[in-house]
Design brief:
This protein is α+β, with helices and mostly antiparallel strands. It is about 40% helix and about 15% strand. A 4-stranded antiparallel beta sheet has the order 2-3-1-4. A hairpin with a 7-residue loop joins strand 2 and strand 3. Helix 4 packs across helix 6. The radius of gyration is 21 Å and the shape is globular. The chain starts with 17 loop residues before the first strand and ends in an 8-residue tail after the last helix.
Length: about 200
Amino acid sequence: MESTAPAPARAETPQLPVTVSFTRRADPAHTVEMTAWIQAGLTMAEDFPGFLGGGWVRPRHDADEWHMLCRFDSPASLAAWEASPQRRWWLGSAQGLAEMTRTERRTGIEGWFDPPVDAATELAPAVSPPAAPPRWKQATTIWLVFFPLNLLATVTLGALLADLHVVLRVAAMTLTLTPVMTYLLLPWVTRRLEWWLHGRRWRDR
C-alpha cells in the first residue's frame, strides 16, 4: 500500500504594515467641528484589530486642508476597518462639513516622505502634488531620529544585555528600536520638519 506524503505548505508572503493618508478640505470657520470629527474617527479605529496608530496635521489659520494618517499592521486589517459600518457612519457624519480631495496608501519608512502616488488619487485640476524631498533631506531626517534613539538604547538596553552574544544583543535592540522609530518618532519628527523637507521657510510652516 502506497502512502502519499502531504505536499509541503507554501510559505505565505509576509504582509507589511500599510498607512492610509487622506486629505479633507473644510471651511476654516469649522475648526472645532473638524477636530472633533477627526478625533472621533481615530477613537473608533483604535478598537479595530491591527490598528497601529494615527494622527492628523492641523492647517494654518488661513488654510482649509486637513491631513490625516491611519496605520494598520496589514492590508487585510485596513480593509476590515474600511468596510466597517462604524467607518461608514463616521464618513457620513462629515457630509456638509468636509470634502475629500486626496487619498493614498503607503508602506515602509519612505512612505512618510513620498508625495501621493496612488492611482485613485483625486486632485483638483489646478493643484499638483508636491515633489518628494531630496534624498539627503530624507536621510538627514532619519538620522536625526536614529542617532539619539540608538545612543539611548546603547547606554540603557545595551548595558542590560551586555552578557548576551553579540548577535542576540543586536537582534534584541533592533527589534525594540525599529517599531519605536517607524511608528512613533519618525512620523513625529517628519511632521515638524515638513516645512524644511519641502523647501519652505520656518515662519511659513
